[in-house]
Amino acid sequence: MGSPSPDNPPCADFDRHLQKERPHFGKALRTEEMLFVVGLGLADETDITVKGLHVVKAACRVYLEAYTSILLVDKDKLESYYGRSIILADREMVESSSDEILAGAAADDVAFLVVGDPFGATTHTDLLLRARELKIPTKTIHNASVMSAVGATGLQLYNFGQTVSMVFFTDTWKPSSFYDRIKENRQIGLHTLMLLDIKVKEPSIENLARGRKIYEPPRYMTAGQCAAQMLEIEEDRGEGAYGPDSLAVGVARLGSDHQRMAAGTLKQISESDLGPPLHSLVLLGKRAHDLERDYIREYAIDEETFDRCWEEQYGKP
After folding, report:
1. 274 vs 223: CA distance, rounded Å
2. For the chain, where are the alpha helices, taking DSSP H only?
3. Cβ(191)–Cβ(288) under 8 Å?
4. Helix (H, G, I), strand (E, B) or coil at 4
5. pTM for this structure?
6. Which of 74, 154, 80, 81 is nearest to 115 (CA)?
7. pLDDT tens digits, 261-276
8. Which of 91, 121, 107 is nearest to 35 (CA)?
């Protein structure tokens, strides 16, 4: 099969291509046209799996979901590496116009690309459910996600509790449902992974109220902003789920060559700058093990403060 190009989608050659590559997959990927949901990993164009790349090169249409997360490279770089044109699928298309993505998937193969792993966001599960309702076969190609790669902090994955999301606060909207989940995790000594808000192609509240499709510039929450908002809610609720001296790890650009981490108190992290997006934050549970301490201490903003807070609060049953 010749190299696919954006102007010459290789739909007719899909079966022949996969039959040729079958030894690499152990068994055929599929026997009929379908929707492929392909995980891209965390950082750049080279993070796609071999299996995922074969699917992308051979599909008739390729969509990139572009609002629940982002890669650290732009669409042009992906298109160059994959040898395919890519259609950006924003929130409006995925949540309100999924029929456009699924149209024709019963007759031709469609690849829907997702940063991280396909099951990292409920939106992707919803798309698969809609495909199921339309009797369109589906296939998922998995990849690394923040849910597993966060182990790079040195914190053990089996010591994590519920994952929570942090949204950008406004003057009139400061949701605190995350606080209850953190409190539950902390009561049994477990770490909490916090996924931070991104705003891509979203209208302001004023434009939304006026029905105007005018979009705000992209915004990506930092670990520092997350820590500051957490402290604001703790001050408001005062239930002691955490405090300024609670230890956390800020993570930036996880999985990339420019990955960076910083361990310290929430107060320290609220004042830190970990550079460009994407960021996440892990709040330590009190059952943290000494091996975890030894690993994350390497990233301490200030070792003396880190050691003091650890001795006071952590490593206890």
Report:
1. 8
2. 14-25, 50-58, 75-82, 91-96, 98-102, 122-133, 146-149, 177-187, 205-209, 223-237, 266-270, 290-296, 303-313
3. yes
4. coil
5. 0.86
6. 74
7. 999 999 999 999 999 9
8. 107
